[in-house]
Amino acid sequence: MNDAILRYNLVERVMHWISAITYCYVLLTGLAFYSPHLYWIATLLGGAPTSRYWHPWVALVFTAVLFWMLRVWLGDMRITPQDRVWGDAVGHYIRNEDEDLPPIDRFNIGQKYFFWAMLYSGIVLVLTGLVLWFPELIPWSLRSFRYVAVLLHVAAALISIGAFIIHVYMGTAVVRGGFTSIIRGEVSPAWARTHHRLWYHRVTGR
Amino acid sequence: MSTGALRIQRASGHAGPIPGEDTQRRMQVAKLIDTTTCIGCKACEVACLEWNDLTFRDTVFENSYQTMPETAWNYWNLIKFNEHERDDGSMMFLMRKDQCMHCADPGCLAACPAENAIVQYQNGIVDFQQEYCIGCQYCVTGCPFNIPKFNSQTKKVFKCTLCSDRVGQGLEPACIKACPTGCLHFGTKDDMKELAETRAQQLRDHSGYAHAGVYDPPGVGGTGVIYVLHDITNPEAYGGLPSNPRVPWTVRIWKGPLKWLGNLAMIGGLIGVTMHYLRYGPKHVDGGTGEGGRP
Ligand code: HEM
Ligand code: SF4
Ligand code: SF4
Questions:
Q1: Can you tell me which atom of ligand 3 is nearest the CA of B150?
Q2: ipTM, two decimals
Q3: Among B12, B45, B181, B221, which has the highest number of CB atoms less than 10 A from its own CB?
Q4: A31 vs B49: CA distance, rounded Å
Q5: Which residues pair with A141 in a beta bridge?
Q6: Nearest CB to A136: which of B150, B276, B291?
Q7: Angle, helix B257-280 to helix A144-169, in steps of 10 degrees
Q8: Which helix (H) or strand (E) element contains residue A199?
Q9: Nearest of B131, B128, B115 to residue B159 by alpha carbon
Q10: Contact B266/A53, CB-based, under 8 Å?
C-alpha cells in the first residue's frame, strides 16, 4: 500500500532542516548572552568566546536560507481570503474541532504567519546583528544606531522565539504526522484530507 | 588585568550578590586632572605605555598636535588638544587627558554579558579581565565616554585600568607619577573632590575664569576621574567630553525590563503550550490508521 502523498520534496526538507539547525544554534548562543542565568549554555556549546564567534556566522546561514525559502515557498505562503475565513474560525482549530473549519490549501494561515514572522524578524535580526557585530564601524556621532540595534535585535529575537515555540509544538505534538512529513516528505491521504483538503484535491485530483 | 589585592564589589554577567561584597570598608579612590595646568607634554601617555608594556602604535599627522584621534586598544591614555577661541578672538589650547573615567555606575559593566569580564573593585576602579572577555563589544555600546577599544585579532577589549595593579600595592598610577606640572593628583575621592573645588574657587576668584568648575558627572553616579575645567558650562569643547553623560536608556531597558518581559514571555509560552496539550492533546485524522501521517 503506497498511496502516500509527497508533501515536501527533498530540496524543501533540506532547506527546512538547515534553517532549523542554524536557528537553534543561533537561538541557544544568543540566549546564553541574553541572561546570566543562561550563560551555561555557552559553556555547553564549546565556551563563550566560541559561541560568540560563531553566532553571527551561523546566523548569516540562517538568514540566507530564509531567502531561499522565500523563493521556494512564496506561492504557497501568500495569504488568501479563504485563509482569513479559516483564521476567523481559529478557535475551533485550537480546540481540535477541525470538522468545523473551512477547507484550506497547502498551508493554514497560522503556518503562513509563522513563515512571515520568521522572515521579517530575520531581516531585522540580520540588520541589527551587523551593527552588534561591528559596532566600531558605526561612528561615535551615530552611536544611537548601536543603542537602537541592541533593543531591536532582542525584540526581534523574542518575537521569533514565540513563533518558534508554537511552531515546534504544533508540528510535533499536536499535528501528528507533520514531523514525519518534514523528515521523510510523505503524508497519508487521510492526513492530507483532514488538515489540508484543498491541497489534497489539488495534488491528487481526487 | 586583575589584581588579587583588590576586592570586587560588582561583576558583569553575574547573577545574584557578589561574595565578600561590603565586608570591607569602602575607600573610593580618584584621579584629579587639572586641565588648567596641563602643558600637553604627553609624559603621562609615555608612562602609561611603559608601565603597561603596550606596543608601538602608528601616529597620524593632521596639522595639529593631535597624534591620534582617540584612545586605542593599546593606547589607553591620550591628550586631546583642542584649539579654542577666547571671547576676545585670541587662541588658547584646551588640553584634556582622555582615558576611562571609572564611573561609579559603569555602563560598560551593565552591558557586559560575560561573567567577571568587567569588575568594579571596592575602591571604585573599573577593570576589564580579558581572560573572561568574549569579545562581544557590548561594553563599547554601554560606555558613554567612547573608551573600551576592541582588538580584532585577539577579540578582547582593553582600556585604562587606573593602574589597579599599582594601586593594589599602595602605589599611585603611573601617569600621576610622571606628570611634571603636578596637574595630576591621586587620592581618596573625598580628598580629590575637596582639592578640585579649592582649585576651581581659586580660578574663579583670582584667574578670571568665572565659569571654572569641577567635572564629576552625576548621570553616571560620579566618576573616579574628575576634571577641573576652565569652563564647566562647556565640557564639549574639551574634545567631546559629554556635558551630561548617562548610560544609554536603551541599554537600561535592554538589561532591565526587556529581560524580564522576555523571560516571562518565553516561560509563559512554554507553560501555554504544555497547558494546551494537557487540555486538548493531539489532533486526530479522520479515517486514518492510528496517529501517524504515514499510511
Ligand atoms: C545574521 C543575523 C545575525 C547576526 C549578524 C547576529 C549577531 C549578533 C551579535 C554580534 C550578537 C552579540 C553577541 C553574540 O554574538 O551572541 C547577538 C546577540 C544575540 N542574538 Fe543575534 N545575530 C543574528 C541573528 C540572530 C537570530 C536569528 C537570533 C534568533 C533567536 C538571534 C538572537 C540573539 C540573541 C538572543 C542575542 C543576545 C542578546 C542579548 O545579549 O541580550 N540573533 N547577535
Ligand atoms: S568610562 Fe566607559 S569604560 Fe570607563 S568605567 Fe565608565 S563606562 Fe566603563
Ligand atoms: S567585549 Fe566588553 S562587554 Fe563583551 S565580554 Fe568583553 S568586556 Fe564584556
A1: 1
A2: 0.89
A3: B12
A4: 38
A5: none
A6: B150
A7: 10
A8: helix A197-204
A9: B128
A10: no
User: 233-252 in B: which are within 8 Å (CB) of A?
Assistant: 240, 248-251
Contact check, Cβ <8 Å, A158/B254: no
The dihedral sign for the CA sequence A175, A180, A186, A187 = negative
What is the β-pairing status of strands B184-188 and B156-158?
Answer: unpaired
Q: Cα–Cα distance between B231 and B209 in angstroms, integer?
A: 7
> What global pTM score does this model have?
0.90
A206 pLDDT band, cuts 50/70/90, is: confident
User: Is the CB of B285 less than 8 angstroms away from the CB of A177?
Assistant: yes
A176 touches chain B (CB under 8 A): yes
Q: Is B72 on the interface with A (CB under 8 A)?
A: no
B277: which 3 cell numbers? 496539550
How does pLDDT run across B196-231, given as a tens digit for each residue? 999 999 999 999 999 999 999 999 999 999 999 999
B34-69 pLDDT tens trace: 999 999 999 999 999 999 999 889 898 888 899 999
pLDDT of the residue at B4: 54
Residue spans of beta strands (DSSP E) within B88-215: 91-98, 118-121, 126-128, 149-151, 156-158, 184-188, 213-215
In three-state secondary structure terms, A129 is helix
Q: How would you class B158 by CB atoms within 10 Å of its CB: exposed for 0-12, middle for 13-18, buried for 19 or more?
A: buried
Task: Tally the domains of chain A.
Answer: 1
Q: Is B71 helix (H, G, I), strand (E, B) or coil?
A: coil
A114 touches chain B (CB under 8 A): no
> For chain B, which ranges sit under pLDDT 70?
1-5, 24, 287-295
Query: Three-class SS of residue B93?
Result: strand
Show residues of chain A in contact with B266, CB under 8 Å.
158, 161-162, 165
Q: Which CATH number goes with the domain that contains A148?
A: 1.20.950.20
- Print the domain residue range for A199: 5-204
Cβ atoms within 10 Å, residue A188: 24
Which SS3 state, helix, strand or coil, does residue B99 take?
coil
Q: Tell me which chain A residues have a C-beta less than 8 angstroms from the C-beta of B277.
A: 169, 173-174
Ligand 3: distance of its center to the CA of B124 in Å? Answer: 19
Topology adopted by domain B8-245: Alpha-Beta Plaits (3.30.70)
Please give the grid coordinates belonging to residue B291. Answer: 496517529
Query: Cell 535585535 sits at which residue?
Result: A153
Distance, CA of A101 to CA of A94 (rounded, Å): 11
User: Is the CB of B100 inside a 6 Å radius of any atom of ligand 2?
Assistant: yes
